[in-house]
């Protein structure tokens, strides 16, 4: 709900059939019931006055009338103490609308209670305005067109005050409102990623070395606020999503052969007195541990167990290169001191319409174990009929929990994929009891983004990995 506080610039009292509009006190205004609405008979087509008071904010449920001075009159049934009004406009997120408000006791003679006013032009939800405090039965909207035409198009009008017509609030339409600068995902399209996502506990690793220090560039959590990169980390101008782009052939981290544009969880939240990690594996407040780790390790850590939830779409994967590497990108991880309890992959082969999802679990100092969730991870896998297409929006949840098994605490890994149609695919819970992570010299952190798994493409300027996130959140005990 938007709120405008404006002076009407008119005298408070006007003679109305021999009686004056009385100024009254109403310190706690509530929404008032509207009995009916009429206009001057000039409404367009099927967009009659009754639709402006039906409690609906659908674009087809509106009053529309063309021309300056067209009126919409609301009948409150009997006199009430009026204090405020609220108006929601058709295409109110695209244009500003001009109007004034008048009140009456008898429905014949009206006096102004709000002079000419312009809406904010930023939302299709209710914008509330202060009006002259008066006692009246009728409130009239006088439409003065919009900044682009003479049309007056009102989705909904509400009246607030005190009296016998007080009712429970019917909603201001903000839950489904269109807002200027916001996409269908509720994200700003004109803001850096940190204004759409809470990145105060993340840093990002990029596939470049622009400062020439021989290492990949990393933007720490404090510097990440308000920051973006037009090549590798930016806001999508249509959806507002957070875009990660990893171009093979770029700079890699010390222990990897693959490039990444990827966030790394930083539980310290910008407190640089806490180190990123302690290299001997001792937990600290920047990282978390399993609930099966020793109590002293849990005390040192920033959290115990954890869940990462993301909504995203994979926009592009590589199509050129070695058969065993083409089309692979990691979209989420849990990283430990040296190993990875989970790497979540999306893979789409060049000949397939849809992509597969699987994960790798790396026990300490052992070979990876793979679990297929959707489709087949193989280098010559057939097209997965239930696979996920490029640009298809889906969600994943990676969760580590400590679960009791007949008196034995076990660290369990849960992976869930939710399709855009609401269907849910859950991998079989994975028991990590024998994986070597439940001791006092290891720690965990989440990672999310685009971690390319193909370093063999010969056309990196066109053949790269790109992933767009629409939601990202992490929680720990």
Explain the layout of strands and helices.
Elements: E1 2-4, E2 15-16, E3 19-20, E4 30-32, E5 36-39, E6 63-66, E7 70-89, E8 97-104, E9 111-118, E10 127-146, E11 151-162, E12 166-167, E13 202-205, E14 218-219, H1 221-224, E15 233-235, E16 242-246, E17 260-265, E18 288-289, H2 295-300, E19 303-304, E20 306-316, E21 328-335, E22 342-347, E23 356-361, E24 369-374, E25 394-405, E26 408-419, E27 424-426, E28 430-431, E29 445-452, E30 465-475
Parallel strand pairs: 1-10, 18-19
Antiparallel strand pairs: 2-3, 4-11, 4-12, 5-7, 6-11, 7-10, 7-11, 8-9, 8-10, 13-14, 13-17, 15-16, 16-30, 17-29, 20-25, 20-30, 21-22, 21-29, 22-23, 23-24, 25-26, 26-27, 26-28
Keywords: Lyase, Signal
Signal peptide: 1-22
Domain F5/8 type C: 8-162
Summarize the structure.
Keywords: Lyase, Signal. This protein is an all-beta fold and 477 residues long.
How would you describe the overall organization of this protein?
Residues 8-162 form the F5/8 type C domain. One of its GO terms (molecular function) is lyase activity. Keywords: Lyase, Signal. It is a single chain. Strands 1, 4, 5, 6, 7, 8, 9, 10, 11 and 12 form a ten-stranded mixed beta sheet that branches. An eight-stranded antiparallel beta sheet has the order 14-13-17-29-21-22-23-24. The chain is mainly β and 477 residues long. A hairpin with a 2-residue loop joins strand 2 (15-16) and strand 3. The protein folds into two domains: 2-176, Galactose-binding domain-like (Jelly Rolls); 193-475, Jelly Rolls, CATH 2.60.120. Helix content is 2%, strand content 41%. The radius of gyration is 30 Å and the shape is elongated.
């Amino acid at each position: 709900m938007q709120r405008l506080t404006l002076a009407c610039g008119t005298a408070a009292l006007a003679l109305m059939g021999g009686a004056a509009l009385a100024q009254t006190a109403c310190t706690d205004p509530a929404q008032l019931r509207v009995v009916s609405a009429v206009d001057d008979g000039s409404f367009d087509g099927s967009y009659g006055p009754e639709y402006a008071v039906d409690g609906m904010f659908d674009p087809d449920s509106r009053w529309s009338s063309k021309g300056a001075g067209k009126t919409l009159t609301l009948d409150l049934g009997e006199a009430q103490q009026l204090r405020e009004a609220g108006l929601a406009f058709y295409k109110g997120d695209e244009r500003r609308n001009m109007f004034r408000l008048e009140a009456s006791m008898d429905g014949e003679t009206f006096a102004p209670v709000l002079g000419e006013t312009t809406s904010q032009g930023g939302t299709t939800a209710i914008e509330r305005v202060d009006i002259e405090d008066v006692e009246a039965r009728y409130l009239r909207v006088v439409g003065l067109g919009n900044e682009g035409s003479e049309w007056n198009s009102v989705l909904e009008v509400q009246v607030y005050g005190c009296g016998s017509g007080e009712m429970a609030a019917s909603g201001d339409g903000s839950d489904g409102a269109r807002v200027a600068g916001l996409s269908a995902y509720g994200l700003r399209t004109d803001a850096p990623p940190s204004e759409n996502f809470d990145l105060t506990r993340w840093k990002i690793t990029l596939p470049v070395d622009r400062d020439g220090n021989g290492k990949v560039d990393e933007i720490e959590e404090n510097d990440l606020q308000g920051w973006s990169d037009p090549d590798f980390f930016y806001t999508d101008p249509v959806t507002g999503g957070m875009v990660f782009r990893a171009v093979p052939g770029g700079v890699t981290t010390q222990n990897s052969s693959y490039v990444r544009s990827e966030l790394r969880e930083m539980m310290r939240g910008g407190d640089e007195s806490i180190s990123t990690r302690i290299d001997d594996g001792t937990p600290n407040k920047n990282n978390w541990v399993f609930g099966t780790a020793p109590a002293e390790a849990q005390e040192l850590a920033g959290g115990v167990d954890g869940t990462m939830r993301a909504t995203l779409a994979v926009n592009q994967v590589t199509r050129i290169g070695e058969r065993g590497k083409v089309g692979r990108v990691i979209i989420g991880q849990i990283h430990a001191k040296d190993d990875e309890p989970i790497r979540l992959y999306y893979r789409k082969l060049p000949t397939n319409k849809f992509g597969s999802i699987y994960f790798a679990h790396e026990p300490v100092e052992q070979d990876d174990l793979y679990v297929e969730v959707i489709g087949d991870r193989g280098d010559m896998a057939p097209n997965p009929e239930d696979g996920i297409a490029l640009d298809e929006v889906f969600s994943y949840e990676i969760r580590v929990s400590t679960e009791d098994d007949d008196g034995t605490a076990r660290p369990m890994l849960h992976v869930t994929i939710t399709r855009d149609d609401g269907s849910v695919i859950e991998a079989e819970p994975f028991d990590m009891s024998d994986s070597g992570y439940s001791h006092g010299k290891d720690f965990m952190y989440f990672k999310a983004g685009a971690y390319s798994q193909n370093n063999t493409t010969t056309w990196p300027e066109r053949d790269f990995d790109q992933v767009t996130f629409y939601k990202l959140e992490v929680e720990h005990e």
